[in-house]
Specification:
Blueprint: E1 2-4, H1 7-19, E2 24-29, H2 35-47, E3 50-55, H3 75-84, E4 89-91, H4 95-98, H5 117-120, H6 124-139, E5 143-147, H7 151-163, E6 169-173, H8 193-198, H9 201-214, H10 220-232, E7 237-246, E8 260-268, E9 271-279
Parallel strand pairs: 1-4, 2-3, 2-5, 3-4, 5-6
Antiparallel strand pairs: 7-8, 8-9
Helix pairs in contact: 6-7, 9-10
This protein binds adenosine monophosphate.
The site of adenosine monophosphate has 17 residues, from helix 2 and strand 5.
């Protein structure tokens, strides 16, 4: 497995891969890898001849007072895990390599970046859009793989690539969970034991809400009410938002009539956790 730390090094290697007719699949990450990330690497293996993984904790997507400094990092461990999955190449640049000067380009998404997680994280999705644009331009993969865990991010990246006519297929892989349902996240490493025990209530809440939709509930506020109620049973969880939005545009529907995303964010101590569940309402029977 090759490890590149410079943009020039990636370009040289990618040029020879392209000359050899090899298709690249890129998995962008911030490192401190877990099985969720590794599932994306395995997905990339199916989609490309060469699996590239980027490991970069991107400062421009962290707001003031967020966890940029304490975000967990362990590149040696990550490289071991990636080699074990048969990744071909890793791009692990420094902050100086990625941002030799403060960028003047800003990316926005017509307000989509202010919904859901964006409401409490101004600038976050602009930072994500910028770093993903840079990574896609540096590696120039045929395919890039993202996780459903970050559903809003995946949607915005799809729009970014479509609107900018990037010749890249975006693949979104399902959320990988712990046995008790907690979505895997590098941030789970922050959780104290009692917090870790409380955290799976987020997924339980999403499941109960999804069951209600499957059972015929069509009122988005009734569905988010279920999420609030279940999360409310865990005193350690401080709900930030519970939403039921259309998958197509993240808008709250008057009535659930098309696929929706049930999405939740909560603080557990000083850790912010997110989770979501895409739900397709069963077709309604015709009147009799
Ligand atoms: P991160 O390192 O948190 O920026 O995540 C890198 C990629 O891994 C993103 O596309 C995430 O959506 C994805 N990812 C993170 N956690 C999971 C998970 N539990 N299951 C599947 N994909 C995930």
């Amino acid at each position: 497995m090759e490890v590149e730390t410079t943009i020039a090094g990636v370009r040289t290697r990618r040029r020879s891969e392209r000359d050899a007719g090899l298709r690249a699949a890129l998995v962008p990450t911030m490192g401190f890898l877990h099985d969720g990330h590794l599932s994306l690497v395995r997905r990339a293996r199916e989609l490309g001849d060469r699996v590239w993984v980027s490991v970069f904790v991107n400062p421009t997507q962290f707001g003031p007072g967020e966890d940029l400094e304490r975000y967990p990092r362990d590149l040696d461990r990550d490289l071991g895990l990636l080699a074990g999955q048969g990744a071909d190449a890793v791009f692990a640049p420094s902050v100086e390599e990625m941002y030799p000067r403060p960028p003047v380009v800003e990316i926005s998404f017509s307000g989509l970046e202010r919904l859901l997680c964006g409401a409490s994280r101004p600038g976050h999705f602009g930072g994500v859009g910028l770093v993903v644009s840079k990574l896609l331009n540096i590696v120039q993969p045929e395919v890039a793989v993202f996780g459903q865990k970050d559903a809003q991010q995946a949607l915005l990246i799809r729009r970014l690539v479509a609107d900018l006519d990037m010749p890249i297929t975006i693949d979104v892989a399902p959320t990988v969970r712990e046995a008790d349902g907690l979505a895997m996240s590098s941030r789970n490493a922050y959780l104290a034991p009692a917090e870790r025990q409380a955290a799976p209530a987020l997924y339980r809440a999403l499941r109960e809400a999804a069951d209600a939709v499957a059972g015929g509930e069509r009122d988005p506020s009734a569905v988010t009410g279920i999420i609030r109620e279940v999360v409310g049973t865990e005193p350690l969880l401080d709900l930030e938002y519970a939403e039921c939005v259309r998958q197509s545009d993240l808008a709250v529907p008057g009535r659930i009539g098309s696929p929706v995303l049930l999405a939740v964010a909560a603080h557990v101590g000083s850790t912010r956790l997110i989770d979501n569940l895409p739900v397709t309402p069963p077709a309604e029977k015709g009147g009799d």
